[in-house]
Design goal:
- This is Protocatechuate 3,4-dioxygenase beta subunit.
- It comes from Microbacterium foliorum.
- Pfam families: Dioxygenase_C.
- The chain is an alpha+beta fold.
- It has one domain: Protocatechuate 3,4-Dioxygenase, subunit A, CATH 2.60.130.10.
- About 10% of the residues lie in helices and about 20% in strands.
- It has 4 helices and 12 strands.
- The strands form 3 sheets. Strands 4, 5, 8, 11 and 12 form a 5-stranded mixed beta sheet that branches.
- Helix 1 (about 35-45) packs across helix 2.
- The protein starts with 7 loop residues before the first strand and ends in a 28-residue tail after the last strand.
Length: about 325
C-alpha cells in the first residue's frame, strides 16, 4: 500500500479523510477493523467502483498481493460425505446451523482479539497481518455467499464475515504453543452485491476429534465486527472426505490421514446432528494447483443466535479436548 497521510487536526479531534479517528491517541493504521472498513466504503464514490461492491474494494485496497479467486458458482447442501461435486443454486435451502466458535476464535470472546487489529480486513489470509509468518499447505480459496432469509433470500450485501481455521498441522494461530504472536489463517471480508466473500488460504489439517472444517462469524454491519456478541450467525464449513483424503497424502499434513480415518461427519460433535447437510462445501480443483470451495450460507435475522462455548468434550485440537496431528 502507499504511505498513509497524517491525520488532520480539527477542533473536534484528529480526522482522516474527513472522519474522526476512533482512537484519537493512536495512528491511522491502529484504528481497528471497523475504521478500516468504513474507510474503504467511503472510497467507493471516489474511486468510481460502486459496481464492484464493498468486498471488491476491500480486496483492492488491502490484499498484499494478487491472489487466486474462487469459483463463482454457488453451492447447495449435500449429504454425500464422500464426494466433492454438487449442483448449484442461487438461494440457500435453509438457515445455516448455529455452531460453537470453539476455544480458538480470536474474536475477543476467549482471550486474544484479532478483530481489533488494523489489517485484519483482507482477502489473503495465508500470512500474518505484519507479514512475519506464512502458513504452508495446499492452496485453498473458499467463498461464502450469505443469503438474507428474512427478506426473501436476497443476497446479504454489506455483512462482515470473519473466517478462521487451523494450520496444516492442526494448530491455531494466536493460541497454539509458538503461534501466540502469529495471526495467519484469520481474516475479515465484507459481502459484495451478490452477498459473496472470498478468502485465499491453505487447506486446513485434520486434528484428533474433529472433522476438517473452517469457522466463520457473520456480523450485520461494518461497525459491529469488533464485538463478538453482535454476530448474527456463527457456524462452520465442512470439507468433503475424498478431497481431504487426497490433500492429507501430502507430507505437510502429518497425522491428518490417521485422524480423518478415525472420525466421520455423522460422529463429529459439531456436524453429527445432520452430517453437515447445510454445511458441506462444494469443492473443485486438485492437489497440484489448489482447490476452490464454495458454500451458500442462509442467515435468518428473525431467529436468535444460539451458538455458545465449545460442546461437551471440547472443540478438539490443541488444548480443546482433542490432539493435534502427530507423525
Amino acid at each position: 500500500m502507499s504511505r498513509i497521510p497524517e491525520p488532520v487536526q480539527t477542533p473536534e479531534g484528529p480526522t482522516y479523510e474527513g472522519r474522526l479517528l476512533d482512537r484519537a491517541d493512536e495512528e491511522v493504521v491502529d484504528q481497528g477493523a471497523a475504521f478500516d472498513i468504513r474507510t474503504l466504503v467511503s472510497r467507493r464514490g471516489v474511486l468510481g467502483l460502486a459496481g464492484l461492491g464493498v468486498g471488491a474494494l476491500v480486496l483492492a485496497a488491502c490484499a498484499p498481493s494478487e491472489s487466486t479467486t474462487s469459483s463463482t458458482s454457488d453451492s447447495t447442501a449435500s449429504t454425500d460425505t464422500g464426494g466433492s461435486s454438487g449442483s448449484t443454486a442461487t438461494t440457500a435451502t435453509g438457515e445455516i446451523p448455529d455452531e460453537t466458535a470453539g476455544p480458538y476464535p480470536g474474536d475477543g470472546s476467549n482471550g486474544p482479539d484479532v478483530l481489533e487489529e488494523s489489517g485484519i480486513v483482507r482477502q489473503d489470509i495465508t500470512t500474518s497481518i505484519d507479514g512475519s509468518a506464512t502458513a504452508d499447505g495446499i492452496p485453498l480459496t473458499f467463498e461464502l455467499q450469505v443469503v438474507d432469509l428474512a427478506n426473501g433470500s436476497v443476497p446479504f450485501e454489506g455483512v462482515a464475515v470473519y473466517a478462521w481455521h487451523c494450520t496444516a498441522e492442526g494448530e491455531y494461530s494466536m493460541y497454539s504453543s509458538g503461534l501466540e504472536d502469529v495471526t495467519y489463517l484469520r481474516g475479515v471480508q465484507v459481502a459484495d452485491a451478490d452477498g459473496k466473500v472470498s478468502f485465499t488460504s491453505i487447506f486446513p489439517g485434520c486434528y484428533s476429534g474433529r472433522w476438517p472444517h473452517i469457522h466463520f462469524e457473520v456480523y450485520p454491519d461494518v461497525d459491529s465486527i469488533t464485538d463478538s456478541t453482535n454476530a448474527i450467525a456463527t457456524s462452520q464449513l465442512a470439507l468433503p472426505e475424498d478431497v481431504c483424503a487426497t490433500v492429507y497424502a501430502d507430507s505437510r499434513y502429518p497425522g491428518s490421514s490417521q485422524n480423518l480415518a478415525q472420525t466421520s461427519l455423522s460422529s463429529d460433535n459439531v456436524f453429527g446432528d445432520d452430517s453437515g447437510a447445510l454445511q458441506l462445501a462444494t469443492v473443485t480443483g486438485d492437489a497440484g494447483s489448489g482447490y476452490s470451495a464454495s458454500l451458500v450460507v442462509g442467515v435468518d435475522t428473525t431467529t436468535t443466535p444460539s451458538a455458545g462455548s465449545a460442546p461437551s468434550g471440547g472443540e478438539g485440537g490443541p488444548g480443546g479436548g482433542g490432539e493435534p496431528p502427530s507423525d
